[in-house]
Structures are given as C-alpha cells and as structure tokens.
C-alpha cells in the first residue's frame, strides 16, 4: 500500500494596501509677486491675531487641503483659509477626514497677473463642491473684490457694494478708497507689523516726552499712576 503525502497549502497572508501619500507641496509658489504676498500675509496675520484667544479656530496660508480620503489628486491650497472647530496645531496638510470632516468655512484668494479665468473658475467649483461657506477674491492691481456666500444650495455671488461684512468672521471689507481696507469686528484696521510697530514707537515717544515735561515741572510721573 502506498501513502500519498498530503500537500500542505501555504498560509494566505493578508493583503496590505500601500499607504497613500498626500504631498504637502503642490509645486506652485506661495505668490508671484511682492504685492500679492503682502496681502496674503496681511490677511493671515491679522486673522491670527483676531482669533488668537480662541483655541478652536485654525488659520492657515497656502496649506494643501485634501477633502476626500484616498483621493490625493483632489486638493486645493487657498491663499488663506479659516476653519472653525479645529485646533491650532501645526499640519503638513489639511486632511479633512482627520479633522472631524470639517471643511474650511472661509477661503481667500489674492490674484496676480499669472492667474487665469479658467484657473479661478476651477477653484470656485472646488470650494463650492466641498462645502466652503464664504469665498473671497481680491485683485490688488485693479482693486476688484468679489465675495461668494453659501445659500441653501451653493456659493452665491453677493452684491458688490462698497462695504461687505463677513457673516462668519465678522470682519468688514471697505472698497470706498483706492484699495481694499479690512476692519475687524472692533472696527480696527488690518495693518502690517511695521505699521503697528511704528504706532507703538510713536506712542512711547509721546509718553516719554510727557513724562519729561512733568519732571521739569517738579512732578513725579509715577505719582500720577
């Protein structure tokens, strides 16, 4: 009698799906010129200051946003974006499914001579599709400002008045002058660090001059505090 040796089957190993890479750089520059960069920095830094005390408002500049897990070809990098309900931690990209599936509520784009109408139309479609509530475009060369706000269905272009107040941010856009001015909810003008420092130095000089004048009159300034 002959015995056939049983064939031992090889264990089946679980299939390991390759990890999807979500690049943090789309190969495009932050800005094409100094004016565009200055506006991006102005808006980003002033929004940072405005919401500094709220730990659950995240403000980012030129950060890649991936709205759908597994789709690393579908992304956008708003010049500035604001997300209510997310912490201020540093991120290499904004992967929405890791962020409570919260889409940025507000996005800004500052135009340069390199932007095409087709490019901006694609961005509008992207922001509309993925839940942005407010979308703002400003062209500093032409002082042309546009705003879209989501209605019950989609982003809708709002009337182009001289003044517009953001429903989400509470900031006011004023187009009555030669260039856009932005004011916070306390009616303070968005300004650069250099302007704020100049104001601080001027105020300090006035205070020191007043103190010196009081000392010349025989009055100790510290007694007036």
Query: Can you give the helix content as a percent range?
Result: 10-25%
Span between N and C termini? Answer: 113 Å
Quantity of strands, as a count: 11
CATH homology group of the largest domain: tt1808, chain A
Range of strand content: 15-25%
Shape: elongated
Structure summarized in a few sentences:
By secondary structure, the chain is α+β, with helices and mostly antiparallel strands.
Structure explained in plain terms:
With 225 residues, this protein is α+β, with helices and mostly antiparallel strands. It has two domains: 34-190, tt1808, chain A (Alpha-Beta Complex); 192-225. It has three helices and eleven strands. The protein has helices at residues 34-50, 117-129, 193-216; strands spanning 57-60, 65-66, 80-84, 94-95, 106-110, 134-139, 144-150, 155-157, 163-165, 172-174, 181-183. The chain has a six-stranded mixed β-sheet, sandwiched between helices. The radius of gyration is 26 Å and the shape is elongated. 21% of the residues are buried.
Keywords:
225 residues; alpha+beta; tt1808, chain A; 2 domains; 24% helix
Task: Give the topology, please.
Elements (H helix, E strand, L loop, with lengths): L33 H17 L6 E4 L4 E2 L13 E5 L9 E2 L10 E5 L6 H13 L4 E6 L4 E7 L4 E3 L5 E3 L6 E3 L6 E3 L9 H24 L9
Parallel strand pairs: 2-4, 5-6
Antiparallel strand pairs: 1-3, 3-5, 6-7, 7-8, 9-10, 10-11
